Amino acid sequence: MVCAIWRALRSGVMISISLACLAMPGRASDITIFAAASLKTALDEVAAAFEGPTTTISYAGTPVLARQISFGAPADIFIAASLDWMDWLADQNRIDPASRFDLLSNRLVLIRHGAGGTLVETTGTALMETLGQDRIAMALVAAVPAGIYGKSALQYFGLWDALAPQIAQSDNVRAALALVARGEAPFGIVYTSDAQAEPRISVIATFPEESHAPILYPVAVTKGRSSTPVARFINHLRSAQARVIFERHGFIMADPAP
């Protein structure tokens, strides 16, 4: 799958890699984390509760961050929203395979602009009647995990071909969420955790788990960046304190505490 994604990125949808990110490593006492954009609200809170070195977190779409790491960006920890992109970095020997584990899972939901939206039955007919000819905000469907999962869910209900011309694609899932929150797209497909972070939208349907591949957030220490502070932050991610925060923000813990 990553080969197809990479071809799509090379065809023009890839975001430019930030040279500043590559050129400015953090202080030795800091921990630099690259994390999928959908983690922002929860991970910011988890990091704030960490009693240790300063954490610097860069958020973006998983493929953009993976490409930055492949070019040598100074990330200590990578938290992706895609098993495929973590596998891709593993194949390039860019992560420590012994450090890798699945931290979180998530659910995929259909949202609409405004609070108090009416729930929609998750059948192809009901979804089609609801969406009509309106725009649907999604992350990049050929590259970003949330977009890939969303396209799969629409294909599961036999709706993708009909709805594809209405899709408004964004660089990452939080950008898609923002389009719906501002009313620039009436509908969107995002994660449950994203929906909980935005009061200007309402969840009107939850896609069944069988409609897409499992949504998992793998974590790994990047090659050559292992240290005691990094190990402490990894343990913090799996702590009871972090679990409470992640679950409050709509995530599901995928890996039991060690």
Automatic annotation (TrEMBL):
It comes from the Bacteria. It holds the Pfam family SBP_bac_11. NCBIfam families: modA. It comes from Roseobacter fucihabitans. This is Molybdate-binding protein ModA. Keywords: Metal-binding, Signal. Belongs to the bacterial solute-binding protein ModA family. Gene3D superfamilies: Periplasmic binding protein-like II. The keyword Ribonucleoprotein does not apply. Residues 1-23 form the signal peptide. The keyword Metal-binding applies.
